[in-house]
Predict the 3D structure of the following.
Amino acid sequence: MKKLISLAWKGFRRSSYFQMNLAIRILIILGFIYFGGIALIMGVASFYIIKKAMDVDDPLMIVNSFLIYWFLADLLIRFFMQQLPVMNIKPYLILPFRRRKIIRYLLTRTGVSFFNILPLLFFVPFSIVLLIEGYSIVSTLTWFLSMLCLVFSNNFINFLINKTNAYFYGILAFTGALVLMETYGVFKITEYADDVFNAFYEQPYVVILPVSLLYLTYKLVYNYIRKHFYVDGAISKKEEKISKRDFTWLDRFGKMGFFLKNDLKLITRNVRPRQVVLMSFLFLFYGLIFYTQDIYRDMQGFIAFASIFVTGGFLLSFGQYVPAWDSEYYKLMMSQNISYKKYLESKWSLMTTACFLSFILSIPYIYFGWEIFSMIAGGAAFNIGLNSFITLYGGALNRQPMKLNEKAKAFSNTQAFSPTQLIITIPKLVGPIILFYIPYKIFNYEAGIITLAASGIVGLLLKNQFLNFIEKTYQKGKYKTIAAFDEKQ
Amino acid sequence: MITIDNISKEYNTVEVLRIDELNIPEGQSFGLVGNNGAGKTTLFSLFLDLIQPTRGQINSHGIVVSESEEWKPFTSAFIDESFLIGYLTAEEYFYFIGELRGRTKEQVDELLSGFKDFFHGEILDQKKYLRDMSKGNQKKVGIVGALIGDPKVIILDEPFANLDPTTQIRLKQLLKKITEERQATILVSSHDLMHVTEVCERIVVLESGRPVKDIKTSEATLKELEAYFAERSEQETENADSVEESNDEQQTG
C-alpha cells in the first residue's frame, strides 16, 4: 500500500499540474479556496441564516428537505465532471502486489477527490454548529455519518453509471420517473425524502441504511473491477464499438461539407466534445433563470447577457477550443494539402450553423414577450457576425493541447484552458452588452437592439477581411502551436 | 529536386542540426540513418515546415517550404501517430486524405485494393477506430495514407519500426517499386541498417546533427555502415571507461 501511494505521489508531482504555468496554478488554487471557502462559510452560517430568514425553530428540517436535490445534483455534476481513475494497471499486474490491495487502493483513491471534500467542508462545520446549538450528540453524529456515507455512495454510484450502461439507464429511468411523478403529483418523493433525512437524526438506528448503501455500492464497484481486472478490462481504456454514422449526406456541400463531416465525427465520437455540446445545449435554457425573475426584468444589461448565452452556448464553449480540438493530429493538418483559410472557414461555418440552430430552438422564448425575443435575435446576430470571429481569433492564442477522449476534470484537468482565454472572453460577453446598453440609454430599447443586430451584419459583410486577418494570426503562431500541441501530456 | 541550403536548427543556442548543402534529385530513394538524437526527425520536420529553421532554407521543387504552402499538394508524410486521426476508422481516414488530395472515393478504393497483401486483412472492414488499433497496424495505415494522391515527395520516419517481419518485407517491395518506376522521391529514416541499404539508393549518416557520410548504396554499403557504427560504439565505451578511470583517480587521489 505504501509503495502504491508513493508511486501515485510521484505521478501526481510529475503530472502536468506542477508543470503548468504559474498563472493557471494560482487560478486553480483560487478556485479551490473560493469553492471551499463558500462551503465552509455556508456550513457555519447556514444554520443561523435559515433560522433568521425563515423564522423556524429547527433549521435542520429545512436543510433535510433540500438534501434530496443536493444529492441528485451532486450525482449529475459528478457524472459530467468527475474523472474516474484510469490507472495504468499493466505494470502492476506482473509485480508482486495482491489484486485485492490494488483494487482497495484504487477505490480509496477515488475518495480523495474534490467532489468528496467539498461536501465535507459543508457538513463538518454544519454538524459542529448543530452540537453547539444543543442538538443531541448521538443524533447529530448519526446524521453526520449518514451524510458521509451518502456522499461516498454517490462517489461509487458515479463509477457504476460511468462504466455500465445498465446502471446509467437504470438510474436515469428511476430519477426520471420520480421527477415525473413529482410534477404530476402522483407520488411526491420529496415529502418522503424529508422523512428519511429527518429519520437519520430522529431515529439514530436508521443510520444502518446509508451505511449499508455505502457498503453495497463499494462492493458492487469492487466486484466490477475484480471481474475486469485484466489489461483489457475496466480500468484500462476500453475499445468502443464504432459508430455507423458517417454523415455522407454532407458531401453535397462540397469542401465545406467535408470538413463539417469530420467535425461532426469529432463531436460524436469523443468524450470531451460530447460533454461540451451537452453543456452548450443546457445554455439554451440559461435565459429561463433571468427571464422568469422579476428583479432582472428591469435590468436590461442582464437580459442582454443572458440572451448572448441562449444562442451562443455552442459557439462559446466549442469555439474557444479551436484549434485545440485538432491538437492530437495537428501535424497532419499542417502538412496535408489543406489551406489554413479553408480550415478556419469550416470551423466558422460549424459555429455559425450551431448559432442559427440555437436561435430556431429559442423561438419558444416568445412566451416571455417580444421584447425579450428581439433581444435574443439581436444577440444571435452579434454571435454569428462578430462573436464567431472573436472566438476564432482567441483560438490562435490558445496553445493548450487537449485529449479528446477524456472527460474534463474539475480542477485537475486544465487542458486547453489558459489565462488568455479569460481575457478574450471579455469582448465576447461585455462587447454585446455595451453595444446594446449605450444606445439604449441614449435613445430607447429598439435602438439598442438595432445596434446589436447591425453590428452582427457588419461583421458578416467583413467576413473575408476578418478571416484573412485571423489566418495571418494563425500562420504567425504556427510553429509555436505545433510545438505546444506536440508536448507529451 | 530537393535542395538543402545552409540549414541549421538550434534550440536554446544548442545546435541540433546543421547541413551546409545537400541535394536530392527527383525520384531518388534517400535513406537517413543515425543514432537517437542525431537529428533525423528534426530534418524531416524541417522538410514539412513543422519547425522553423534557425538559418537557411529547404527548397522542394522550386518552393521554399518555410515561405509558401505550395509544397503541400505534392508532399506527403508519416512521421508519428500525430499524423493519424484517432477517432476515424481506417477507411474514413483514407477517404479523408483522399479528399484533401482531390481523389474520389472510387480512386482511393482502387488504390487500396493494391494494398490487400500489405494490410494482411487487419486494416479494412475492422470496425475499429484508429486509436484502438495496434501500433503496427496504425503504422500500416499511416504509410498507405502517405501514398494517396500521387505525391512527388514521400517522407517516412522509421517506417520499419513496429512492423511484423512479413510486412517489413512487403514494405520494402513497395518502396522499391515506387523507386523503380520513378514515381516519387522517397525519404526514409531507419535504425535498421539492413532495411535501409536494401531500399535506398543513397544513404546519409547523421551524427549529432551533421552529415558524416554520404554513400551511394552498393554491395559493400551494409558492411561499411556496420563497421562505422561498431567503431562508434567502441569509441563511446572507451570514452566512458576513461571517464570512469578519471573518476576513480579523483576518488583515490
